[in-house]
Amino acid sequence: EVLHVAGVEMQLAAAVSFLTILQEELVSIVAYIHSFLPIILANLDHRDTVVSNAWLETLLTVINALPKETIRQEILSPLVSKAQLSQTIQSRLASCKILGKVARKFESHIIKRDILPLVKSLCQDVEYEVRSCMCRQLEFIAQGIGVEQTKSAILPELVELAKDEGSSVRIAAFDTIVNLLVMFDSDDRTQIIFPLVMMFCEKSFKADETILAPLSHQLGKLCHGLSGNLTEEQHSWFLDFYKKFSTLGLQHENGQSDHTTQFYAADMDAKYVSVRQNCAYNLPAMILFVDPKCFYSELYPTFSTLCHDPETLVRRTVATGFHEVIKLLGSGVHIVHKELIALLQDESLEVLDALLDHLPEILRFVITGGDHVGSESKVHIPDLIPALSVAEQRAATSLKWRIHEKLLLTFSCLPQVISSDQIYYKFLPIMFRIMTTNNVLPVQRASARTLCVFVRYNRKQEQRQEICSKLIEQLGQGRSCWNRLRFLDTCENIMDLFSKAFFCKYFFLPVLELSSDPVPNVRIKFCYMLPKLKSALKLPADKYLLQQLELCVRKLLCQEKDKDVTAIVRIITLELDRMEISMESFPKRLQEKDLLDHKKEKEENLLLEMEDMEKRGEIKSMNEKKLLSSFNKDGKKKTKLGRSRSLGGRVAPPKITTDKSAMKLTSAASNSQISTATKNALLSFDGTLQSHSSSSGGPSNLPSCPSRFYSANSNEQKTNWGKDTLPKKFNLKSRKSNP
């Protein structure tokens, strides 16, 4: 009752509401047809274009739920009069869209009888907007009438529209032809479509540059659709046409000072950039068109040119589809290594951001040389590590911290790509630097998370040991309260990634020390971690740690003076009282989280066993070399002795030599002793055979080890990373707070 005098805002709200009523089935379809459909149809002719388009969109969605008979009577019958030339352009445009929608609801003979005459009439409309709109609906009409009727009724209309004087009509016809390629047979493609497309493409270069961008966008789909029906000459024509598009505008420079000429040149440059961007978008389709085996000879120069295009939009589009390119290349992925490095080092962070979306997938595929992801063989990529370092530096020095955060989280895939030694020497110092110097909290947390992943998959106990020591010394016992807060963040990540046994052995007690931190914010964060700390314990092995935890809670309840900390402690204490501690004596009662923890501990033990086997292999190899050397010396001595007997009458006195069997026995015994000692050291480090706390009854200290963050020939060993220090007992009372 109100809509006929309502304003634009109320009309738009009503259009949305009417659609919601149908979608949520608030009334029956019969009631909806009786009460709401007439109002929708009446408002299609609203004088305001925005309002009429809103009601048209509502009707197009409602048609899907309407019965065929209702569509025929209420929508299709009035459409005959609304599609006449005497009606407004707005009414005829709405008729085009409605025809395209209702054609999917009826059988082919009904479409041919009732809808096709209207379609042909609108394709011949005097207004180019109507012809263009109807042309874009021909795809849906063709799907309704089938292949045979499309060839006889729709294809002639498309051919005529492709030659239309209006550029928008020609573009619509070209797009529709490309989308309907699958419905045309080989003869139609060869005799009708290909000549038409060739004429269309040549005309766009010579006379009408307005259609260059739409044409270049559909070029990949067009080539792929026609590839099975082209001769070698036609194939080469399309490929050359694509190559021209990919360099369009790069050779043209206008140095004139006339203002009009400069503006025109800038406008043309913008169109050319769009064309080259579409060429970058179509790269995967063109690789299929030429066959991946011919990529290097046919498309590699074009691909390299697009990767180094002067416009950021083009390079970003290449980076977005780079993962599709390497998948198509397969074992030939090594061809594009240089381009990957160039995109990683691109001066624009937008390019790096686009590459990061699939960078883990790209690196895994490239590093295996196109083989399966689980392949053991890895391909060395020159300059990969420097390129990643440069990308991190660019992101760190910019103001776009979200890209920096995204890059750091992406670095967590590196253990699957490069060796743990390379990560240890090249990337761990970067993570520590970010955690201690960066001022953006999400970036700090991202670096902490990635650092924990590095530790999780590090295959050398000495390196894992030193990283843990550095975390405790530089963060947990750091002078800045920000570092101590990041230490607690890191410990939460360690709880997620590592087993409970690993965390309790090396980080539980250092975390408890922060219960008496001089900064209230640190103590508050510690209090929020108390439930996680308790859930990490297992009885009876962690009885001592449980006692220390309860002692910290009692101290906080009795001695805490800050009211905020006190309030949080009281709430957390109630939660701690309700928690149950896991018992090692009931393995059958393991819950899902306990099974996950057991799996993590098993993986950690497996890493130790692998390291133990590698060390034993090195020792065995070394012993074999020594044994071979001794055999060679013994053989030389016997040769000399034989020569002395044959050449002279006197025999030289024999020298004492080592018996072979005795040497083998000694070597085996030595090998066994070293292997046993190594295994015991590994097991004592990671706590695999004995409990991490029960045997000592107290905290386990990390032994000192030489710092290996930099190579021996580096001058940077004199920095803090090269210190050979132990995490000393931290005296909280003597430390000055540095909030």
TrEMBL record:
InterPro entries: ARM-like, ARM-type_fold, HEAT_type_2, PPP4R4. HEAT repeats lie at residues 115-152, 154-191, 299-331. Residues 730-739 have a biased composition (Basic residues). Residues 691-707 have a biased composition (Low complexity). GO terms for molecular function: protein phosphatase regulator activity. GO terms for cellular component: cytosol; protein serine/threonine phosphatase complex. Residues 710-722 have a biased composition (Polar residues). Residues 627-662, 688-739 are annotated as: Disordered. PANTHER family: PROTEIN PHOSPHATASE 4 REGULATORY SUBUNIT 4 PPP4R4 (PTHR21467), SERINE_THREONINE-PROTEIN PHOSPHATASE 4 REGULATORY SUBUNIT 4 (PTHR21467:SF0). This is Serine/threonine-protein phosphatase 4 regulatory subunit 4.
